[in-house]
């Protein structure tokens, strides 16, 4: 099986780019952020704060999170309910960034991620895929872009969707805060794996980024 690990900060375009690359290569795209978001949603639904580690530990004992691939498209289930759409809110984003720092949450989701990689050719995106989850992945990419560029893209996405409830400045602030939280946690912080190739998409169009990633994958697999 072939595993491509794509790590990088929030808003670097990982999911959009990785989805397109996976389609071209006929790999399964796995968005691991959705798992952390499902845990975060569960804490919110139970009125548990991200600082309440013991309560989260107890909650996880009777929490079931599953990933299913329907026509190769990932859906995430929390205790049997498809929560793929519910997890896409700023509240869940910020809560996930905090709860994902807890070792109990990370170990809860580890086997689930590894099991998928055993059975399929995958392109898996996250923060610690190349460093922790799949240290033996054949290809490791660290996908990044400047915070300003990431905030601008997200703002434009909201404009296109007709939903401009957040200003560019607020989005930038959120991105900087999440970057800090994700890269300064003690367990599995966001950082490039030693053997990863860094791809900066700040100056690229979507198509250029996709082509760059495919070129990296092809050159690594040829070796
Ligand atoms: O990629 P995303 O924005 O959906 O991820 C949501 C949060 O989950 C992010 O702030 C960090 C965390 N996360 C993580 O710690 N490890 C991963 N492999 C994926 C996401």
Task: Write up what this structure looks like.
By secondary structure, the protein is α/β, with parallel strands linked by helices. The chain has helices at residues 14-25, 33-45, 53-61, 90-99, 103-119, 129-133, 147-160, 168-184, 206-222, and strands at 3-7, 28-31, 65-70, 73-78, 81-82, 122-126, 139-144, 197-200. Strands 2-6-1-7-8 form a five-stranded parallel sheet. Strands 3-4-5 form a three-stranded antiparallel sheet, with helices on one face. The chain is globular, with a radius of gyration of 17 Å. 2'-deoxycytidine-5'-monophosphate is lined by residues 10, 32-33, 36-37, 93, 96-97, 100, 126-129, 178, 182. 2'-deoxycytidine-5'-monophosphate (DC) is lined by residues 10, 32-33, 36-37, 93, 96-97, 100, 126-129, 178, 182.
